[in-house]
Amino acid sequence: xxxxxxxxTLATSKVETLKAAFVALVIGLGLxxxxxxxxxxxxxxxxxxxxxxxxxxxx
Length: 59
Hints:
mainly alpha; 2 helices; 0% strand
């Protein structure tokens, strides 16, 4: 493998890692805020301690 191919492979790997991290962040934030604004009491109770640990106001 020549240097150009190695650099291209490394750059592609970093881009794919950043894409995966961004998607995970968006899904995680969606879950936290979805549970934060849910009207269901069971969802509220299930996420209560996590929301307080993240300083998310829930009541």
